[in-house]
Amino acid sequence: MHSDILRPMVALIAWTLVMLCWMVATRLPAMRAAGLSLGTLVGSKAADADRALPAQVQWKAHNHNHLMEQPTLFYAVCTVLALSGTGDGINAWIAWAYVGLRIAHSLVQALGNRVLPRFVLFALSSLALVALTLHAALAVF
After folding, report:
1. What CATH number matches the domain at 6-140, 1.20.120.550, 3.30.420.40, 1.20.1250.20, 3.20.80.10?
2. pLDDT value of residue 2
3. Contact 135, 95 (CB under 8 A)
């Protein structure tokens, strides 16, 4: 079985892995510069890293966390659309819009972290997710 909506799902997974690599590539040198060692840290929390590392480094980590939150609903609803045979056409286009908006959100957060553009991108991506959810509901109920 093949559905066009699988492509944006894979694209967002790939983008999440790009953000993971970016986070590691900036965080490890910042930890070294701050005198932190993975070998000596015990049970640290995100707040500890926020206090110890520069904000610009943490923005990548925060965004990676965000890509583990709402997009999980995206993956689930896209799976429903694919399995119900309604993952092509407009639903695939909406899914691509969601992915594009999430990538833009990541770049805004990771590079400058301005709240207003981040909020606008988050709100627009949320509307795309609502549309996909409504279409999935129509398909299965």
Report:
1. 1.20.120.550
2. 87
3. no
